[in-house]
Amino acid sequence: MEIKIGVKQTQREIVLETDEEAKALATRVEETIQSEGLLTFTDTKGRQVFVPSASLGYLEIGAESARRVGFSA
Fold first, then answer.
1. How far is Cα 22 from Cα 64, in angstroms, rounded to an integer?
2. Percentages helix, strand, coil for the chain, rounded to the nearest 5?
3. Cβ proximity of 55 and 8 under 8 Å
4. Beta bridge partners of 16
5. pTM score
6. How confident is the model over 6-47, as pLDDT tens digits?
């Protein structure tokens, strides 16, 4: 699933792919924002991204989709 992170006072957004479930991710983000903690994300390649919750402008969680196999349209 794709995650887009907008950081305050920055025009460029952070985009990453993760295997985490959307519902679990949304719950974790909500809890971290309420506690004013540090949001951490790990993408499918093992790269980690850290965003202070106070700097978070927006977070867009893409829909979970199954990957297609083959050449059919």
1. 7
2. 20, 35, 40
3. yes
4. 3
5. 0.77
6. 999 999 999 999 999 989 999 999 999 999 999 999 999 999
